[in-house]
Amino acid sequence: HVQLVESGGGSVQSGGSMRLSCVVSGGRFSDFALAWFRQAPGKEREGVAYIDQDAGTDYTYYLDSVKGRFTISRDNAKNTLYLQTDSLKTEDTAVYYCVTGDGNYWGQGTQVTVS
C-alpha cells in the first residue's frame, strides 16, 4: 500500500520561498513518476509539476504559471519528492498535494498561504 506524506507548508510573504517535501512509502520509489497538484479555494485542482526518471535522467514538466519559479526534484535514497517554490505570489495560495504519476495515490495535502 503506497503512502505519501507531505510537509513543509505554512505562511510566507509574497516574494518569499518555501520547500515542500513528500515522503513516499510502500513501493519502489525509483519506479514512480510523481507530481505535485494544488487546489485553491473555489478553484479546480491543477497539476503544478511532474517528474519522471528514465535511465538515471530526470524529466520534468511544469504548469506555465510556475515555470522559472518552482522546481520539482527527487531523492531516491531518501524516498522523498521535493517542490522548491520561489518568488511566491498570492495566487500560489492553495493546498498542495503529492501524487503518484498515475494518479492512484495522493497525500493528505499541505497548506501554502502567501500574503
Please describe what this structure looks like.
By secondary structure, the protein is an all-beta fold. The chain has no helices and 10 strands. It has a 6-stranded mixed beta sheet with strand order 2-10-9-4-5-6, with no helix packed on it. Strands 1-3-8-7 form a 4-stranded antiparallel beta sheet, with no helix packed on it. A hairpin with a 6-residue loop joins strand 4 and strand 5 (46-54). The chain is globular, with a radius of gyration of 13 Å. The N and C termini lie far apart (37 Å).
How many angstroms does the end-to-end distance come to? 37 Å
Question: Which percent range fits the helix content?
Answer: under 10%
Main beta sheet, described? 6 strands, mixed
Strand content: over 45%
Q: How many E strands?
A: 10
Q: List the total number of helices.
A: 0
Arrangement of strands in the largest sheet:
2-10-9-4-5-6
Rg over alpha carbons: 13 Å
Q: Which structural class matches the secondary elements? A: mainly beta
What oligomeric state best describes the polypeptide chains here? single chain
Shape: globular
> Low-confidence segments, ≥5 residues, pLDDT <50?
none
